[in-house]
Amino acid sequence: MKKLITLLSTVSILFFMVACGGGEDSNSATQNNGTEGADTDNSMAITETDMGSGDVAVCLWPTVGLRDKAGRSGAKYITGIKFGETVKLTGETEEIESEKRTYLEMELSDGKKGWANEYLFAVNGKAVVATADIDVFKRPDLSTLTTNKVTSGSLFAIAESKDKAGWAEVFTQEKKVAGWTQYNEDLFTDEAIDIALGKVLSEVKGLKSTSEKIKKLESVSSSSTFSGSSLMPMVTEMLEKLDKGTNLPNTQLMITAENLNVRSSPDNTADNVAFQLNDGDICEILQRGKEMVKIRDMEDYWYQIEKDGQTGWVYGFFTSKKQ
User: Fold this and answer.
1) Which of 89, 123, 157 is the last residue of a domain?
2) pTM for this one?
3) pLDDT tens-digit series, residues 275-302
4) What are the pLDDT digits (tens) for 104-128?
5) Considering 85, 108, 123, which residue would you say is the last residue of a domain?
6) Dist CA 312 CA 265 (whole Å)
7) The domain spanning residue 61 has which CATH number?
8) Distance between CA 31 and CA 221 in Å, rounded?
């Protein structure tokens, strides 16, 4: 009888311990459109963001505003998120007919909730950084290869397809490159420190002056925060290219943009693309246009150049001759 009582007591205690030891609910976070540039403070902590379970999206624009309701009319700005940040979707959507836009409700990592334009996000994507040039296809079909690439060092969003095995959608900043690619984890990294450095490199590419770019890259190069990133060799390579570009003779220029169109005439409105050049390519200058030409918010000269026997015109804004 004593043994039975002891056994029943032990079972009761174990049951009580199991009942009281349940797991904790974690608040997941979504992030929304930001109005600030990428954080370039080299002392920032590099941490993983736990978004919990459920659908997520990656911000594709430099700054996107999170508002308290769908649409822009009468909506109050709450906060913003930055390019490359991940948000958690609540599943609520709303069509605003007057804007011809769809808005998504989302939650940030700090618990803030709000609405933002669906077009500005890669739904069910994840932020990664390319460790090599990645081919882009128009559709998940090998016969639809395009001339676009996600270039090494670029921060972008990738969304593995549920229907097309081995394929994934890709989106770079502002969807400048968008399409499909064969899913290969050897071609990108999703480590937190690499994502953080990828955001900084994206900001560097957006800086206007070469001296500003060099200053920022030198700061990153000497930072202990990013010393463990697999992308550090890219920082060194970017610095070497920029240094080379600043020391060229007057008869040469260096391309400072990816997949830059070289045109048969100094005009970007005509269908006159002759070939393309890549970031770091050195060209001989044949002549410079007589006057500066304004294109959108840019103003610079056109340059006729020669590269490997091919000639054409490039806009100076995207070269080391940038005014």
Assistant:
1) 123
2) 0.66
3) 999 888 999 999 999 999 998 888 999 9
4) 999 999 999 999 999 999 999 999 9
5) 123
6) 7
7) 2.30.30.40
8) 29
